[in-house]
UniProtKB/TrEMBL annotation:
Entry GO MF terms: metal ion binding
InterPro entries per the UniProt record, alphabetical: Hemerythrin (IPR050669), Hemerythrin-like (IPR012312), Hemerythrin-like_sf (IPR035938), Hemerythrin_metal-bd (IPR012827)
Protein known as: Hemerythrin family non-heme iron protein
Domain Hemerythrin-like: 18-126
Organism for this UniProt entry: Chitinivibrio alkaliphilus ACht1
Family (UniProt): Belongs to the hemerythrin family.
Matches recorded under Gene3D superfamilies: Hemerythrin-like
Assigned keywords, A-Z: Iron, Metal-binding
Coiled coil start-end: none
Origin superkingdom: Bacteria
Length: 138
């Protein structure tokens, strides 16, 4: 089991209360999956992995709506990244019948994309959001 700890930090905020709260929830879901590794039944793992997938899909729709509202110039690339993340999650679910392998692979993937996508990729639209709205909200 990885010792990587996902801990929310306000420096990860992009300036939209709704999106930032969803990001915090994604951090919490990823951390919970890590903490529960080896403790969940096969059915619980399947349900939790499905919950993460569904929540991620909803979040990406919200984020893309926001990016359209502020007319962010890189929305197509960002949307493409979102699709890749969703497709990868679905592929992990589809191809890993061993529930422990699924949990481990999903945990590793979710940890990586939560850190990379939220901390690095989403920070790219932060300045545009501030410029369009004229303020930064936590």
């Amino acid at each position: 089991m990885s010792t990587l700890m996902l801990k929310w930090d306000d420096s990860f905020c992009v300036g939209d209360v709704f999106i930032d709260s969803e990001h915090q929830i994604l951090f919490t879901l990823a951390q919970h999956l890590r903490e529960q590794e080896g403790r969940l039944t096969a059915e619980q793992v399947k349900q939790y992995v499905q919950l993460i997938l569904e929540y991620t899909q909803v979040h990406f729709r919200h984020e893309e709506d926001l990016l359209r509202q502020i007319e962010w110039e890189h929305i197509k690339e960002h949307r493409k990244t979102h699709r890749h993340i969703i497709d990868t999650m679905k592929e992990l679910i589809r191809t890993n019948r061993d529930i422990r392998v699924l949990q481990e692979k999903m945990r590793a993937f979710v940890n990586a994309w939560v850190l990379e996508h939220i901390v690095q990729k989403d920070s790219l639209f932060k300045q545009s959001l501030i410029e369009k709205r004229g303020f930064f909200t936590l």
